[in-house]
Amino acid sequence: MKQSQVKEYKSAIKLTLSRTRNCILQENQKIRETLYQEEKRRKEKKEEAKKLDEMKSQQFYKERVSYEKMIEEKLKKSREKLLQDEQMLQSRLQETQNLLSKSQKKFMELQSQSVHSKR
């Protein structure tokens, strides 16, 4: 080979290597961009999932608080009803005791009269 052919061959090889290198760099840039976009989408999905979990947690908290308030109201009403029932039972007990006392007095009077009349 002549020297000029060698130079031409070297030049062609350098040009081919330069083009190949540029193609590889472009492909690497595309890959990096794709990876960046995928990472960005993954982070966005993670953020969305986090927000959704937070919303679910807040909703659960609201429902729990609402449920607890409802239970407290029912307990309050039950306590009030129990107190009313207790007061009513106390008054009935008092009435019954009064009637019993009157009946015992009447019985004693009748018994006393019966004893006096037998004499």
Based on DSSP secondary structure assignment, what is the total number of beta strands? 0
Total count of helical runs of at least 4 residues: 1
**What's the Cα radius of gyration?**
50 Å
What is the overall silhouette? rod-shaped
Largest sheet: none
Residues in helix, %: over 70%
Q: Which residue ranges are poorly predicted, with pLDDT under 50 across at least 5 consecutive positions? A: none
Global mean pLDDT: 94
Distance, first to last CA:
168 Å
Order of helices and strands: H
Derived structural class: mainly alpha
**Assembly state:** single chain
What fraction of the residues are assigned to beta strands by DSSP? under 5%
Provide the descriptors you would attach to this structure in a database record.
119 residues, mainly alpha, 1 helix, 97% helix, rod-shaped
Layout of helices and strands, plus pairs?
Blueprint: H1 3-118
